[in-house]
Amino acid sequence: MSAARVRTRRELRGQRRRRAHGCWNHLIAAPLWPKHGANLGTLLRTCDAVGACLAVPRLPWVPAALDQGNTLRTRSCVHWIDGRVDRWLQRQSHGGSALLGVELTDESTRLADLPVARRRTVMVLGHERDGIAPEAMELLDLTVEIPMVGTGHSLNVAVAGSLVLYRLAGLS
Known about the structure:
Alpha/beta knot, RNA binding, single chain, 172 residues, 32% helix, seven-stranded parallel β-sheet, methyltransferase
C-alpha cells in the first residue's frame, strides 16, 4: 500500500469556496445563553468552516469571548441579538426558519439520524449547566441529542454545536 499524499495549503485553498458566504445563509448557530467565553470563539471558527453564521446576545463580555477562541483574522458573520432571545426565535420561526435545539428530550433525534438542512435552520444551543430555557423549548421544531458512552452527561457548547453544524451542513 502506498503512503497517502498530503495536500498542500495551496491545493486545499483552491478546493474551498472562492469568497466568503453571504450573511444569514441557511445555517445559523445560536448559543443564546452563553456561559464560557472560549467556547464562543471556537464555535465561530466552526461556523466559518461549514459556511454558517453565528447569532449571539449582545452582552458586554461577548466580543472579547469571540476573539478568545477564534483563530481567524476577522470576526465575520456574527449577528447580534438585542432584547429577549425568545422573541428573536419567534421572529426566525415566523420568517420560515426551522428551529432545532441541541437538547436531551424524550423526542430528540439522534445525531446520526439528523438530516442535512435543506432550508434555513437556526441551531439553538443552551446554557452549559441549565440547557435551553423553557420558553425557547416551546418554539423548537426539532431537538437533537448527541449520544455519549462516557460518564459525562453533556459536551460543552463549542463541541456539541460543532458536531451538529457539520451534520446539518452535510459535511459529516
